[in-house]
Amino acid sequence: MSAPVPVWAPAPPRTNGLAIAAFVLGLCGFGILPVVFGHVALGQIRRTGDRGATLAIVGLVLGYLVLAATIIGVGVLIAVAVGVPVFATWVSS
Fold first, then answer.
1. What DSSP string describes 19-47?
2. Which residues lie below 8 Å from residue 38, measured CB to CB, with a gap of 6+?
3. What's the pTM?
4. Which is nearest to 59 in space by CA: 17, 23, 15?
5. Closest C-alpha among 55, 72, 63 to residue 31
6. How does pLDDT run across 28-54, given as a tens digit for each residue?
7. Which residues in the chain show pLDDT less than 70?
8. How far is the C-alpha of 31 from the C-alpha of 69, rounded, in Å?
């Protein structure tokens, strides 16, 4: 009689590190880094089968929201900076 052969369970898929980084940087309010990390992470997840697609997508959404808010804020700042002197000269005339 032979000894039973131990059967090991396969290791669970790991969570992609770039997906975690995209999520954390998106929460911290960084703009471009979560977008880049999120896209790279999704490519790696599709290729390797890692976990973390939701983290990467949330990081992408947060990153794009920060970028949109930054662009809108800069636009408003430029409009105010250009508009106030024009308005002041128009009122004083």
1. HHHHHHHHHHT-SHHHHHHHHHHHHHHHH
2. 18, 19, 22, 26, 56, 57, 59, 60, 63
3. 0.76
4. 23
5. 63
6. 998 899 999 999 999 999 999 899 999
7. 1, 84-93
8. 9
